[in-house]
Specification:
This protein has 74 residues and is an all-alpha fold. The protein has helices spanning 9-18, 22-55.
């Protein structure tokens, strides 16, 4: 399954066609794009922090023993 990037200019076009002022439609579009960027950033930072806490000790030593090699038979 190939995932396609999300694009929302249709929302802005729909608002303009529905009679909203273009400035307001553009502001809504910008808010949505910033929310998508913020959600992606928070998700990435959260994943990195979880992996860091699992893979490193309090003394910042890499815990090689916590890694497992998974075979193709699983």
């Amino acid at each position: 399954m190939l995932l396609q990037p999300v694009s929302l200019p249709g929302m802005m076009t729909g608002q303009v066609l529905a009679g909203q002022p273009p400035g307001q439609a553009i502001r809504h579009q910008i808010v949505i794009m910033f929310l998508i960027a913020a959600a992606s950033s928070l998700g990435t930072v959260s994943a990195v922090l979880v992996v860091f806490r699992c893979a490193f000790s309090r003394a910042h030593c890499f815990l090689y023993g916590r890694l497992e090699e998974r075979g193709a038979d699983e």
